[in-house]
Amino acid sequence: MLAPANTLLIMATRLDKRLPNTRGGALLSRTRERMKAALRVVKGSGTDASNDRDGLADAEASEPDAAVPRTRVARGTSSRESYEAQAARLEARMQHDMRLARTIQQRFLPSVPEVHNGVRMHASYCPAYEIVGDFYDLIEIDRYRFQVIIGDVSGKGVAAALIMSRIIAEFRRAAHSGLAPDQVLDDVNRFLFSRDLPAGFVTATCIEVDLKTRSLRLANAGHLPTVARRKLTGATWMFGEASGAPLGMLEGEVYSCETFYFEPGDIIVMVTDGVTEAIEPNADPSAGVLTGIVADGDCDLSKLTAEILEAVETSEQVRLADDVALFAMQLA
Questions:
Q1: pTM of the full predicted structure?
Q2: Out of 8, 134, 144, 245, which could bridge 323 as a Cys pair, Cβ 3.0 to 4.6 Å?
Q3: pLDDT values of the chain reduced to their tens digit, one per residue, 332 residues
């Protein structure tokens, strides 16, 4: 049996090997050397130094190789690697959550049919970030009437996405209440102020199509004008200028409607500012690039919208990191 001093020395040796290059390991090394010296001094106490050395050698030989990785990493030796691993796991989790949020957000947008009550339709949505604030919606009122909404929530990220999802619900509620487009904007504007939301605003255009009277009523809250193209003459122009400030900007703002009577085959194109920022000089829609594409574009609606999106992607203008939403109709 080893003497008590030998036992302590062996324990110190084992700990010394487990804690290399640390403050605790250095302290144990010094303690170990002092205990060796003390053992050499106390030969007369019945402790044989050669036995001590033999016991120490046996203890050292019985120790596993220090190079073999252990399940518990010594404190201070791998903390940086540990933090980096934790940060990588956190980043991966955040990316997963953002992709999931984007999927959920896009579920709020309707699946637009190619034909709705004889009206050909096409919608595109190209977000610049995982979750964003651009939106559109198709709301059926009755057999002959439906409303189309397109808009953009100021800001990016989670806050804009949350407001966007609630705004869509409020537009649907107002439309199903039988309100005209200008009244829909009034109603949603009051809702935003009633909830005392953080500073921000929503640009939006609301169009109501009446297939029975072949009329289109439009109200605009600080959004881009809408592009129209006559099938018979090919005449193309912008109409539906903003009649009031963006929603959530001025409490009690009043909006007005503009009426447009269409003919079968006429095309209507609504976009968010991600389109004009990409293709129009100085992001000014009155420069006429978008209207020119619509005027010269294919009569097939899906091909025409593809031409607009191609112009956005290949534009030589400095494109800002903004989202792109488009809703087009070919009326019956």
A1: 0.68
A2: 134
A3: 444 555 555 555 554 555 455 555 555 566 556 655 555 554 444 444 445 455 444 544 444 444 444 445 545 556 666 878 888 888 777 666 666 666 665 666 667 889 999 999 999 887 655 556 789 999 999 999 999 999 998 876 677 777 888 889 999 999 999 999 999 999 999 999 988 776 578 999 999 999 999 999 999 999 999 999 999 999 999 999 999 999 999 999 999 999 999 999 999 999 998 899 888 887 788 888 999 999 999 889 999 999 999 998 887 665 555 678 999 999 98
- Amino acid identity, position 316: E
For the chain, give every domain's residue range. 4-77, 109-330
- Identify residue 305 by its one-letter amino acid code: T
Residue 193's alpha-carbon distances to 81, 183, 190, 201, 253, in angstroms, are 49, 16, 5, 10, 11
Fold held by 109-330 = Phosphatase 2c; domain 1 (3.60.40)
Distance CA 166, CA 317 (A): 34
Residue 10 · residue 55 · CB < 8 Å = yes
